[in-house]
Amino acid sequence: MDVVQRVRFLPMNMATINWRKAATEFVVIVLGVLAALAVDQWRDDRKDRATEAEYLIRLHADLSTDIQTFTSLELIFETKASIIKDLRDQSLPALLSRDQDSLVQDLVFSGFTSLPASQASTFDELLSTGRLALIQDVALRDALSRYYTDFEFISQILFGGSHGNYLRLLQESLPGELFYQWRLSNSLDNPEDLHNGLEVLLSEPGLAAAANAEITYSAALIYYLRQYRGQAEELLELLNE
Asked: Of 195, 171, 212, nearest to 88 (Cα)?
């Protein structure tokens, strides 16, 4: 083969060699890109799992707070209902035979009003930021949604109760100065104010109905407090798994 023929075949050989090299480089580039994407995905997943773990810790703390709050409020409303029953059923001499400072304390306690509040800041943040999907456990995610949604719904219903009549009668019958002074010093300066105020309260024709409504309202709160405390405890078990 002469020189001309060798030169004629050279470009074809070079073209074949360049194609193989290009194909090899393409594969290397693709593999590099895929590897980089895989690393980025791994890094994002790791970050998501770390964020999820932080949220689960915060949810655990919120639910633990709810359980403590519900337990305390249940005790308070049980005591409140018991005090109102005594005020409704006992005579004036029987009430005044008690320790007067303790009696004033019970009167103050009987007017206690409070709706249970759930510690929902972490769950609200998950919703508002669109991060609820970070919680991988679908059952846990659904249980959390039901817990906070149902609690808000029931709270709105309980807020509309007619339990305020008892507190109004209490405030209208007993001098405000009596409660004011007792709160400042935990002592009763004028026993006559207590005697006269109780006499007016017990003579109110609407006392029995107002007391019954307040006791019924307290019982409803206790029922729901126990219900949601049980749900919070179940959620804690899911979080601990």
From this structure: 212
